[in-house]
Design brief:
Elements: E1 16-22, E2 29-30, E3 37-44, E4 51-59, E5 64-65, H1 67-77, E6 92-98, H2 102-113, E7 120-127, H3 133-139, E8 146-151, H4 156-166, E9 171-176, E10 179-181, H5 185-195, E11 199-203, E12 206-208, H6 214-223, E13 232-234, E14 259-262, H7 263-268, H8 286-296, E15 300-303, E16 309-311, H9 317-340, H10 342-350, H11 352-363, E17 369-371, E18 378-380, H12 400-424
Parallel strand pairs: 1-3, 6-7, 6-9, 7-8, 11-15, 12-16
Antiparallel strand pairs: 2-5, 3-4, 4-18, 9-14, 10-16, 11-14, 13-15, 17-18
Pathway: Cell wall biogenesis; cell wall polysaccharide biosynthesis
GO molecular function: glycosyltransferase activity
Region (Disordered): 1-22, 422-441
Length: 441
Amino acid sequence: MPDSRTDVPDDPTGPTWVGRTEIGHAEDVAAPARFTSARLLVCHPTPAGTVPVAQVELPLARGRASAAEVARAASAAAGHVPQPPPVSAEPVTVVVATRGRPDSVRRCVQAVLAGDHPAMTVLVVDNDPPDDRTERVVTAFSDERVRYVSEPRRGASAGRNRGLSEARTPIVAFTDDDTEPDTAWASRIAGAFAADPELAGVSGPVLAARLETPQERAADLALAWNKGFAPRRFSLAEPPDDSAVFPFSPGLFGIGANMAVRVDAVRALGGFDEALGPGARTAGGEDIELLVRIVLDGRVLGYVPSAFVWHHHRPSDGELRSQMRGYALGLGAFLGKVALDPRARAAAVRRLPAAAARLRHIVRRESGDVATGTPGVHVVTGGNGGDSGAAAAGALPDGAGARTLRGLVSGPLLYLRSRRRVREDGGVAPPLTRPDGEPPG
């Protein structure tokens, strides 16, 4: 149950209903009366299936909005309709690393199995399991597509590396146990790799599954995981215009709750850094570090908006504070790793003047939403996918901003300690850049 009291600042918006609508097929919103607004994923039909084009928020009257109101909001928000990746039957292994959250695992695996990909394996990696509850949940599926693996080493990175070593498919997709992937998620990932042989990895939108509590809404505003609905491609040869610090902008590429890789490419880079991530002292950063390392190695990343997952944000103050502190520690640890690598450090320093100018622009931005011209209706933009990874501190629980800053400052030292411990225990902590690789620009 969510906490009955809250340290989150006053939230005038009230509970927000989360759903979806399709252009040309709008229906009434009929939510419980306590909901004051609705956030709808706007999808557009194409010959290859529906594709998301925007998220829009509209007001509700006692939980209700008519189909006509929904249709007007969706039409006002919809823009360019990207073509989804082609359908591909390329086998995919979905890895879910977890520890001590069997109910979340059940919900996540059910969503993955409901997907439409014809050649999919789900591998649940139980990190240093405290009991057999997760194993019993996975076994109860009685589905030959689902496998359970116990990994004695604690940590998301160790779990994901175990998944990479167990996979027998050329593509591995990663998600977290607190997500529900869309039914087309794995198919769109496979299609993206099939359409672009240069891709070493892809990511996609991570959308809030619930926005009922003040904490869930604060987390959604602060995390800004939705990077939009335009397909993107990232490489050193084609730096994006919206990032002054590329490729050292962690928020640009996506997160581990929705990412996939070519197994051979990531194995060649040494896999995930086990000194980073949940379960390690650094508590985070393993996903952003790997994505940055892929680009620094001269490889290509893609962003596939039609491959999205729904994420269940932390519903209580304590969980939200812990999550934000973990992300701050992880970001600080990642920045510490950049500073420890002479080649990466030199490249990052060269970007500082442009980064300072970009930061001045970001701090002047007051809102992440865009008016549509329809009263009360806003397009939800989340993060812009560039350098705007800073949390919206005003939405966080009291004191969270200071704790986040402390996490950023302490992250580099914790990374050094964590890396030493990992190497002593025989784990892996690959360098950010390879000595024989091309130096970053």
